[in-house]
Amino acid sequence: MLTVEQALDEILSRVRPLGTERVEVLGALGRILAEPIVSRRVIPPWPNSSMDGYALRADDTREDGVELTVVGRVAAGALPARALRLGEAMRIFTGAPLPDGADAVVPQEDVTAEGDRVRVPARVERGAFVRPVGEDVRAGDVVLEAGHRVGPAEVGLLATLGYARVVVGRRPRVAVLSTGDELADLGREPEGGQVPNTNTYSLMAQVLEAGGEPVNLGVARDDVDAIEGRVRWGMAADVVVSSAGVSVGELDLVREALVRCGAELHLWQVSMRPGKPITFGSLRGRPVFGLPGNPVSAMVTFEVFVRPALLQMAGARALDRPRIRARALAAIANPGPRRGYLRVTLAPEASGWGARLTGDQGSAILRSMVAADGLAVLEGDTRVPAGGALDVIVLRPLEVRAR
């Protein structure tokens, strides 16, 4: 069996970016930039006030209790009528440009105003409550690199810089197939020995979360011709992901169906738990994955192998989830020789995070994934005592919960 690292290296060495497309700025949310973003503006373009108050000359406040003459007002979106002279101030509002001659702002709550006079009780330092020119961005700055994933703040920055459209990596189209006579698809009640089709929907959700576009190939019965037909249908997509039928049983027919479609298989079986049986190959230039059938095994192997491949195909630089060191809140064991990916909840502590198993770790217990904040990675035949350190892959943003 390959190690996880060997298997992932094999997969990523055979996966290439798909190309690019230009999209509207809001449509870039969650997408991977395919070119660097260079600022063509200075932000802010002029010094402006960060408070409602009075623009003034700092040198005019060298003595306590100075009174200044108010000679105008500047609202956000307007320009000052003239420059400030010795002994003058100008009423100003947040975001408004400073008049020439002014170099500081005093907040309105710190002064006493009466008519056209304002009394400043204490010295004001030069630059106080002033946002200088280019404080955020200067023209020519590379503000975002190619390979960066666009979030809400990036969308705002792109709009600020005048980018109505940007070039991003194309989303991988991922055909998702479930196999097994025992599966009753969504909308049908299971009969006899059937079970609900879980994997199609959890895997398609993982595709969406990774930035891809899922294509539902439905359920193929345990028949090599039926599976082959569905795989050929999926070859219109960029990636094919199937679940179940990749072990060594009489009805494990996915590998045979892939070969019949012309796939070259590069690996089978990885030393991990859950998820030992996994197939990866190339089919006319597109990656094909055969994942295990148990719901947790399918999700974990997708997380470890398929997600990084999809991100690389979309042009991302960062392929890995964040990892943290957490303190085991109770003993956690990984019996057996294979590396374990154990589902854990995370709880905030004074100096970091504590981790606890979500409960039973059976590969068919989907609720262990529902409850999981992360995957604790333990090498084979390892037991971490309570208080010991764990390496945890973080699956979702950590929130400080009320205690």
List key phrases describing it.
Molybdenum Cofactor Biosythetic Enzyme, Chain A; 403 residues; Molybdopterin biosynthesis moeA protein, domain 3; 6-stranded mixed beta sheet; 32% strand; Molybdopterin biosynthesis moea protein, domain 2
What can you see in these coordinates?
The two termini are 44 Å apart. The protein has 403 residues and is an alpha/beta fold. The strands form eight sheets. Strands 7-4-6-5-9-8 form a six-stranded mixed beta sheet, with no helix packed on it. Strands 16-13-17-21-20-18 form a six-stranded mixed beta sheet, with helices on both faces. It is elongated. α1 runs parallel beside α6 (295-313). The protein folds into four domains: 4-16 and 171-313, MoaB/Mog-like domain (Molybdenum Cofactor Biosythetic Enzyme, Chain A, 3-Layer(aba) Sandwich), CATH 3.40.980.10; 21-43 and 151-169, Molybdopterin biosynthesis moea protein, domain 2 (Alpha-Beta Complex), CATH 3.90.105.10; 48-131, Molybdopterin biosynthesis moea protein, domain 3 (Molybdopterin biosynthesis moeA protein, domain 3), CATH 2.170.190.11; 323-394, Beta-clip, CATH 2.40.340.10. It has seven helices and 28 strands.
